[in-house]
Amino acid sequence: MHCQEASAHGGDDEEKAGILQEIQGQWHNIMFSDESTFRLVRGGSKIVRRPSDMSRYNPQYTIRTVKQPNSLMVWGAFSGKMGKGGVYFLHKNVTMKSSTVIEC
């Protein structure tokens, strides 16, 4: 039962306070977390114009690209009980799951 529901039912103030305290206490059991991958690519879009009589493979008119750029996995969390949990950088090809342990 939520606080608004308790007030709608006309319960006494002591009952409302107990319900509110219970709800606030439940937030201590919840942790919010997220992970995100950042790809390390530098440079931006660049337009190259080549004369029509030149080969498209001429190095002067080509742009180097990276097919598999380096990436960095970042994970962070916070909770009502512990506050902010920090930001952690994970090793390559590692994702955060229940079996992953982070030593603080």
Topology record:
Elements: H1 3-8, H2 13-26, E1 31-40, E2 70-79, E3 83-90
Antiparallel strand pairs: 1-2, 2-3
The spatial strand order of the largest sheet comes to 1-2-3
Please state the overall shape, judged from the principal axes of the Cα atoms.
Answer: elongated
How does the helix and strand content classify structurally? alpha+beta
Order of helices and strands: HHEEE
Mean pLDDT figure: 76
Indicate the radius of gyration in whole angstroms. 27 Å
Stretches where pLDDT is under 50 for at least 5 consecutive residues are 1-7
Distance between the amino and carboxyl termini: 37 Å
Largest sheet composition = 3 strands, antiparallel
| Number of helical stretches of at least 4 residues | 2
Percent of residues in helices comes to: 10-25%
Topology, number of strands: 3
Strand content: 25-35%
Overview in brief:
With 104 residues, the chain is α+β, with helices and mostly antiparallel strands. Helix content is 19%, strand content 27%.
Q: What report would you give on this structure?
A:
This protein has 104 residues and is of the alpha+beta class. It has a domain of 60 residues. 19% of the residues lie in helices and 27% in strands. The protein has 2 helices and 3 strands; from the N terminus they run H-H-E-E-E. A hairpin with a 3-residue loop joins strand 2 and strand 3. The N terminus is likely disordered.
